[in-house]
Amino acid sequence: MTSKPHSYYVPHQSAWPIIGAIGLFLIAFGAGHFVQQLKSGASGGGYILLTGIAVLLFMLVGWFRAVIHESMAGLYSQQMDRSFRQGMSWFIFSEVMFFAAFFGALFYARMFAVPWLGGDANHAMTHAVLWPNFEAIWPLVTTPAGAQTQAMPWTGLPLINTIVLLTSSVTLHFAHVSLEQGKRTPLGLWLGITILLGLGFLFLQVQEYLHAYQEMGLTLTSGIYGNTFFLLTGFHGMHVTLGTVFLLVLLLRVLKGHFTAHSHFAFQAGSWYWHFVDVVWLCLFIFVYVL
Questions:
Q1: N or C: less crowded end of the chain, CB within 10 Å?
Q2: Is 61 found in the same domain as 83?
Q3: In which element (H, E) is residue 222 found?
Q4: Whole-angstrom Cα distance, residue 17 to residue 3?
């Protein structure tokens, strides 16, 4: 490895950002059409969604490879390392704001919209005009069309998934400690267990969704409760998927002998992201499932 330059490294122009933007656009466009086709019976949205996911994964592989090659070539200075840390910090902050918007929607529905529709002291007319038969209870198991659904209990799969994800934070911490101590074998072992726990979480979430759709009548069309439930858990599942891909890349780098006890910010960034995903799930478990 060559010595690190003292000047700030400016990478060459890259097509990866625009490729990533195209992938995200296809995901958003395809997801919207996929939801609509659930109602209308049309087709095509699912294929667009899968195409977007494939493009995004292609971008991640290519961009990760480029950054890894630059790092292993010794092109990054201490200033570049600080830039990576600041960039990852702001990225996680943006993700916090992303989930805050959805938690805010949940809070607004439960604390404001439901009491208003239920005809509290200040909104009796709203209750009489908009929904005379509405009962101000949460979760809402009756849609405006009169269809009945069920609330997802916090026991069973949600509780198991919570234990699985929190355990993965512990195993990832052990992996990080092993890296700082220069213990390569425990590092790979703990990191591999973390990845398996992440995959297990995703598998159980799919089982939960199947149970919700097939046996509970809980779907995206089940009113505000169904909307917020699937939006929060679905977007979190997407973040777990990306985090698992991130950790898998880190495991491949560990097996190739990358990272040292004093130089491993990529591993640290992956740990930050995974712990953030775990904290979001803990909040989600409390406010969506338990309360």
A1: N
A2: no
A3: none
A4: 28
CA distance 88 to 154: 32
The structure tokens listed for 282 are 């803990």
Same-domain status, 64 and 134? no
Q: Are residues 67 and 112 in the same domain?
A: no
For the stretch 208-263, pLDDT in tens is 999 888 888 788 777 788 888 888 999 999 999 989 988 999 999 999 988 888 88
Tokens for 53, please give them: 């996911």
Mean pLDDT of 15-29: 92
Q: Identify residue 131 by its one-letter amino acid code.
A: W
Does one domain contain both 25 and 137? no
Q: What is the CATH number of the domain that holds 257?
A: 1.20.120.80
Q: Give the span between the Cα atoms of 224 and 220, in whole angstroms.
A: 9
Look up the pTM and report it: 0.82
| pLDDT average, residue stretch 112-125 | 70
Compute the residue count for the chain.
291
d(CA 9, CA 87): 15
Which residue shows structure tokens 């919570």? 162
